[in-house]
Amino acid sequence: MRSPTLSHMSLPEHPDAARFGPFGGNLANMPPHYEDSMSKAGSADKVGAPDLEKTATLEEGEAKFKKLGWKRLTICLIVEAIALGALSVPAAFAAVGMVAGVILSVGIGILAIYTSYVVGQVKIKFPHVEHYSDAVGLMFGRVGMEIVGAMFTLHLILLSASHTLTGTIAWIRIVDDPTVCALVWSVISAILLFLLAIPPTFAEFAILGYIDFASIIGAIGITIIATGIQSSDAPGGLSAVEWSAWPPADITFQSAFLAVTNIVFAYSFAICQFSFMAELHTPKDYVKSIWALGIIEIIIYTVTGALIYAFVGTDVASPALLSGSHIVTRVAFGVALPVIFISGSINATVVGRYLIGRFFKNSPIRYTNTKQGWIVWIFVLVAQIVLAWVIAEAIPFFSDLLGITSALFISGFSFYFPALFWFLLIKEGKWNASKKNIALSALNALCFVIGLTILGCGTYASVKDIVDSYASGSVRSPFTCSQEAYA
């Protein structure tokens, strides 16, 4: 697919060519990689570590981190986007009805493909952009870059924490031994996340991605087949299952919007796209990746949501793995272990690349092909995973907290920031200069409004959910050994 706006664009000859954002952000005064603060350290490196320069040049490191092709980019995006969240879609269908569920799944998927396309256009036009915060810095200067960098880092660390928690639940279900302290499984989950995050390049990480994809397809397949057989064998068969094409009569705004946000978050892969594309050896090939990913996601989410909802009905659990029998749940969680930990670890890898890229911009350390580089890389990963583990265990309402941060951050990364990218960085001429500009202006305005709606309503629904959880006494204690708290 050829970009409608790229044909008349010229790339800046040097990163400094794009100094000024439309809102007056002077990129000359913003240190996206703290180069000024590291200049003295760079001089010290030259004096104190001559062997480092001999064995690891910046050119060699750059070559190492430019080996990602579009197929492996697709795999990295799949790892980031498709995890056990796919098995929360059936519960979303149950909340809003089959028709609305299918429309939301397909419609949001198409919008996600488009906003991801815009993100790629920004990377093509401004090749020096390496992470999401760099792109926002083009519009809003250093302040915008720092704020979004903090959002980016915090959200990905919270996602790692979420996978630590999911891993704990999986081990509890699989092993089925109530005498084991739940914290043991939590620590094991954190260690696995750390080990799987060690590959420093996304080209290397993509190898794990094939296992990840097979794992989620296997878990989904087992759940669909098992629930289908279960329903067929029940009295009355499939015709006795209670499901509806339309929303239930007692639907509330809170439950409806939580269902919508669950589907929205399932398509939230744009947050890491800049980071992945920084290693792409042929950047224009990104279009193949986002189309492949988008189509795969739409098919998986729509089929999974519709079939499991039709087989289980309004009582479908979230994740749907829990809707099968005891044995089926144990088997499905066992098959899902790779996707739980691989999809969780890629978040730590992305944050690690972001932090090291900022603080070691002009040092071979950033390429992790020296002893010093590996020490720094391991330290950054350990610090992240420990922080993620503490957050997951210390905050009793962590799952709901993740819902709040997703509403606050994913609404921007997936919708209103890409819309602003188009209006402020990509659009050529006035919004009404041509029919194409008018159509694209309307589409991006829609994305912007959707993003703000998710920001406001999603945050409200998540906060209300926390209040209700405390009122019902369903909030677990921090750092608890009780396995029942994770049920």
UniProtKB/TrEMBL annotation:
One of its GO terms (cellular component) is membrane. Residues 67-463 form the Amino acid transporter transmembrane domain. It is found in: Membrane. Keywords: Membrane, Transmembrane, Transmembrane helix. InterPro entries: AA_transpt_TM. It is a multi-pass membrane protein. Its main location: membrane. It comes from Aureobasidium pullulans. Belongs to the amino acid/polyamine transporter 2 family. The chain crosses the membrane at residues 73-93, 99-119, 140-162, 182-198, 210-231, 251-278, 290-311, 331-352, 373-392, 404-426, 438-461. PANTHER family: AMINO ACID TRANSPORTER (PTHR22950), AMINO ACID TRANSPORTER (EUROFUNG) (PTHR22950:SF8). One of its GO terms (molecular function) is L-amino acid transmembrane transporter activity. The keyword Membrane applies. It comes from the Eukaryota. Pfam families: Aa_trans (PF01490). This is N amino acid transport system protein.
